Amino acid sequence: MVLNIEDTVAVTQNFANRANLDDVCDAMIYEAEREPKRAEIWNTFRAALSAQHPNLTSFVDRRIAVYADSAKPTEDSYIVAEGYKTKAEYHDMFHDLKLWKHRVVELLERHGLGEQEREASGGEEILMELVAGQNPIFRTPTTIIKFYSHLYGGTPSHHAEVSSLTRLHEHLPPNYGAQLPRLFASGTLFTDGHKGWNWPYVVIQVVNAISVGNVWGGQWGGRRVGNGGEDEGEDEDGDENGNGDVDGDGDGDGDGDEGGGENGIVEWEETVDWVAEMLKGRFILQVLTLNNEMKYRRFLLTPCPNSPPKPPHPAVHSIPPDDTFAPTHLGWTAFLANKLRTAVTRHRSWAIFPSHLLDQLEAYLPASVEELVPEDRARWATLLHGDLNPDNVMGYIDVVGYVEAVTPPPQLNAPPAEPPQIVYAPPPGPPPPVIYSPPPGPPPSAVYSPPPGPPPPAIYSPQPGPTPVVYAPPPGPPPLLDQPIVTTTSSADVDPPNRIPRYHWRPTHLIDFGDAHPSGGDPLFDLVPFVVTTLGCRKDLMQRFVDVYNRGEGPRIEKKEFVRRALCYVLLWEFPGIPKAVVKCVPALKACGSWKEVEEVVWGGVWE
User: Fold this and answer.
1) Which of 15, 93, 428, 523 is exposed most, by the fewest CB atoms within 10 A?
2) What's the pLDDT tens digit per position in 272-331?
3) pLDDT < 50 stretches in the chain
C-alpha cells in the first residue's frame, strides 16, 4: 500500500503508447479469445485507437494476424512431428518441465556431467526453468542447458554461440577467458533420423552472479542511468527489463543522479571501463581473420574435464568432424545488407517512430553496406557480441561498509501523527449506575457473566510523552533466486545490529553469445545496444566508452560518420527492443523534423 501525501500522478500497468503497443495488443487479444468481457474491452480499445490514431490501424491488424497465425492449425512439419497442432501449443511446450527434465538428464549423462550434477545437488535432480521465450533454457546447479528452436533461427544462433565461445576460450589470455562462461558441450538432442526438429543445444557453465539489469530493478537498491525519458516501463521479450523510470531514481527526469556513489550500488564509470576493455581485448583474435587460409573447427565436441572417456553419442557431432571454416567479415556485411533491404518494412510494422520520420526512412538509410561501414577493416573487431543488453553483463555484489540505522527525519507537510489507540482502560472509582432494569419474571439464561472480583487490568495504557519512532532494517541482503556471490569487508558472519550494509556491484562476466557475429565487424555495432539499453543514451558515458575502447592498438570506433552510423545501427536492429529503448530514453526525438535532427539529439556531442 502507498500513501501519497502530496499531489501525485500515478501511471498504472494499464498504459499503452508506441513503445509497448505490440505487447498491449498481444495481451488483450489473448484475453479476448478466452473471456467475453475481455473481448468487449478489446473491441472498445481497438475502435478508439483507430478513431484517434488511424495511422495505427494497419499495425493493430498485423498484431491480430500474428496471433491468428499462431492459434490456427499449422502445416509446419516440425511442429506436427512433435504432436502439436498450432504454434501456440508448440510454444507452450517450452514450459513443460516434465518433458524437458527427461531430456536434460539424458544430455548430462551423454556428456559425462551427471555425476557432477548429483554431487552439486546432494543427490537430487534439480532443474529450474530460466527463460521460455524464443528458446527453452534450463539451469541445474552447475550448468545452463539451452535448446534452440527452429522458429527463431535456431541453427545460426547455435552456431554463433558455440563458435564464439570456443574461439574466445582457445585464443584469449586467461584474464579475459575467465570472464566468459565455459562451454562444456554441444550437439543435437536427436540424430538425423528423427522426424521432428533435432533440437541443437549447448551445455554451459553456470555464472553464479547477478546481472546489472537485476541490480537496478530495485531488489538491491541499484539505479539505472539515463538521459531523460518517459516513466512508463517496458519489458521487451527477454532483451530489456521493464523498470519504470528510465534512470530509476524515481524523479522521472532520467538524469541518473542516483546511479552510483553513495546512493546506488553500481559505479557506472567502472562498468563502462570494464565492458570497453573486455570488448577491446578480443583484438588478439585479429590473426584469425586476416589469415583466411587458417582452418578452424566450429564445435567443441569434448566432454567436461575429469570425466571418463567414452564413445561419442551420434548426436554430439552436429556437423562432420572434418568440417572447417575460414573466419571472414563476409557474414556480418551480408547480415547488414539483409537488414538494409527489410528495414523500412520492419519499422512500418513496428510503428515505434512517428509517421513523418518513417516517411523519410528510405531516403535516409544508406543505399549499400559499403556506404555505411568504415573502409579500414583492419580497425574492425574480430568478433561482435551482438546483444550487449543489461541482462548479459553479470557481476558480483560486495558489502563495502555499513551505515547507522537512524530515525527517518519528519517529512515536510506531513499530517500530524495520530495518538495511539487505547483498546480499553476503565475509569478509576466505583462503576457507574446501571441504566438498564430487567423485566419482571425469571431472568433469562445468562449468555455471559463476568467473574467476581475487580475488572481485569487494561490491555494497553499509554505512557506520557511522544511515542518514539523506531526503524530497524531486515538483517542481511534480500534473497535472490540466482544466489549471487556476495563478499564482505567485515569479519562478522552477520550484519552488525542497527546498521545497514552498503553494497557495491562490480562487473565480472559477459554471457549469451547466441546473437554474436563470429566473423566480426564494426565495433560501434556492439556499443549501440550497450549505450541505449544499459547507459540510457547518456552522452558522457558514451564518450568515456569510446575513449577507453580506442586506447592502444587494435580495433577502433571510427569518428567518421559516427552519429549517422550509430543511428543507422539502431534502425537496422533486427528486433524492436533497441528502437523502443531509444524513444523511451530520448522522447524529444519524436519532435524532430528529420533523421538528421534525431542524430544530433541522440548521438551528437560525443566527440566534443
Assistant:
1) 428
2) 999 998 888 765 454 333 333 233 332 222 333 333 334 444 444 333 333 333 334 558
3) 218-222, 226-263, 284, 286-328, 422-423, 446-448, 456-484, 488-493
Q: In whole numbers, what is the pLDDT of the chain averaged over residues? A: 73
Chain position carrying cell 554451459: 204
The 3-state DSSP class for residue 517 equals strand
Cell of 119: 554431487
Q: How many CA atoms lie within 13 A of 313 on its CB side?
A: 19
Residue 322: CB atoms within 10 A of its CB come to: 7
What phi and psi values does residue 203 have, to the nearest 5 degrees?
Answer: -115, 115
Burial, 543: exposed, middle or buried (Cβ in 10 Å; 0-12, 13-18, 19+)?
A: middle
Query: Under the phi-then-psi rule, with left for phi > 0, alpha for psi from -120 to 50, and beta for the rest, what region is 414?
Result: beta
- DSSP for 31-54? HHTT-HHHHHHHHHHHHHHHHH-G
pTM comes to 0.71
> Given strand 143-147, what is the order of strands in its sheet?
128-132, 136-139, 143-147, 200-205, 183-188
Contacts of 57 (CB under 8 A, 6+ apart): 49, 50
What is the H or E stretch that residue 509 is in? strand 499-510
What is the Cα–Cα distance from 288 to 277, expressed in whole angstroms?
A: 20
Grid coordinates given for 97: 518441465
Nearest CA among 173, 30, 180, 190 for reference residue 106: 190
Question: Quick check: helix, strand or coil at residue 595?
Answer: helix
- The tens digit of pLDDT for each residue in 314-325 reads 444 333 333 333
Q: How far is residue 349's CA from residue 519's CA, in Å, rounded to a whole number?
A: 30
User: What pLDDT score was predicted for residue 336?
Assistant: 92
- In this predicted structure, what is the pLDDT of residue 380? 81
Q: How many residues does the chain have?
A: 608
Q: Which overall architecture, per CATH, does domain 268-300+330-397+503-603 show?
A: Alpha-Beta Complex (3.90)
Residue 124: is it exposed, middle or buried by C-beta count within 10 angstroms (0-12/13-18/19+)?
exposed
What CATH topology corresponds to 87-206?
Phosphorylase Kinase; domain 1 (3.30.200)
Rounded Cα–Cα distance for residues 373 and 336 (Å): 10
- Delimit the domains of the chain by residue range: 2-71, 87-206, 268-300+330-397+503-603
Kind of pairing, strands 393-404 and 486-488?
parallel
pLDDT value of residue 194: 79
What are the cell numbers at 374? 568504415
Instruction: Return the pLDDT at 124.
Output: 67
pLDDT of residue 256: 35
Alpha-carbon gap, residue 128 to 531, rounded angstroms = 31
User: What pLDDT does residue 491 have?
Assistant: 43
The residues, ordered by sequence, that sit 6+ positions from 444 with a Cβ below 8 Å of its Cβ are none
